[in-house]
Amino acid sequence: MNIFAPYVFGLIVVVFFSAKFYKHKSLFPFMPFYYDFRKRRNTFKLVLKIISERNAKILVETGTSREGLKGTKSNGSATFVFGKWAKINNAKLFSVDISEDSIKNAKKMITAEGLNEYVDFQLSDSVKFLEKFDKQVDFLYLDSYDYSNDKEVQIASQIHHLNEFKAIENQLHSKTVVLIDDCDLPGGGKGKMVVEYMLTKGWYIERSEYQILLLKK
Known about the structure:
Helices cover 41% and strands 19% of the residues. It is of the alpha/beta class.
């Protein structure tokens, strides 16, 4: 028997779990440590800090978290993250999605976590909903219209997100925080057109990673 075998095995185990720990990106203590937000953790963490400092009360999300809390790593579970923040800070999250199944799945999670009072679901085309939204928005999260490797889908998604922003633009103010998901992707991601437009309208990029966070100058 190789006397070094146990030590080699032990080293492999340490390296394996160290790598997993390094990749694990939690929002602890806001969320339990075992939830991994991976590529969205840094921007989520910064957004939560900024909207807390700015005492945000009206939050709007396009694209509801259809996987519930199972999707923290894959899609960010933003509906829960910002719904929980809304409860803690006596705010309100309006989440709109055109998919009945997405709304249904997200509602199960929100109900199970006792957040119904703080999350208002809207089954609608997001642009039409935003056009009629009559409250000032303190935080806007754009994450609708699924993106893909198909160039036609990419352009359609980018146009849709630009139209969403234009639909709600008049309800934004100097302290509004805007976060756009799925930006670091081939073709420029969901935010390509809307970010280009926002930069001509007095906005600036505060953080650009997988998500792009913009604030007003």
